[in-house]
Amino acid sequence: MQLAFYFNPARCIGCYTCVVACKDWHDIPPGPVAFRRVIITEQGQYPHVSVRFISTACHHCDEPPCIPACPAGAIIKRAEDGIVVVKSDVCLGNESCGGACREACPYDAPQFGTEPNAIMQKCDLCSDRWAEGKRPICVEACPMRALDAGPRDELESYYGRIREGGGS
User: What are phi and psi of 79, to 5 degrees?
Assistant: First the structure.
């Protein structure tokens, strides 16, 4: 089984509730680290313009490029659910390895704090909440229900098989 996120950009209003809920749940201090991010895209030319919001996090890829990029072997993909996790006690820190995992990731999922030789952190699909039978906090918090998460095959049967980026 592969757990995954589903995102519907037509429903997202760019409220950042998913970002705030994630930072709060994971006790992430103010600063650059954000496991979930909202990207703003603008299209068109005046007077016909549009703005879209894209809520993104780690895609828990089928073949995560961050895993072979890590010189310490600190990143693994769990066989039971496909969640990509970081063994923080094994991570060398961004100064020691140069943030190779972040450079390899097309989604900027690996995050590093501002402290010296910061250890990599990233979305783990709220694995602690899955263990309790709950969905990720970003999904639960989204007021527009633009996010969902679950087994990929169930998400695809419900929403369709449209994927971009080749991740999850």
Answer: -65, -35
In a domain, 42, yes or no: yes
- Residue at 71 is within a domain: yes
Helices and strands (H, E) in the chain, number of each type: 7, 6
Domain assignment present for 134: yes
How many domains, in total, are found in the chain? 1
10 Å Cβ neighbour count for 147? 23
Q: Which domain holds residue 149?
A: 3-159
Encode the chain (168 residues) as per-residue pLDDT tens digits: 899 999 999 999 999 999 999 999 999 998 889 999 999 999 999 999 999 999 999 999 999 999 999 999 999 999 999 999 999 999 999 888 888 999 999 999 999 998 899 999 999 999 999 999 999 999 999 999 999 999 999 999 998 876 554 444
Residue 26 burial (10 A CB sphere; 0-12, 13-18, 19+): middle
pTM as predicted: 0.86
* CA separation for the pair 46, 8 (Å, rounded): 26
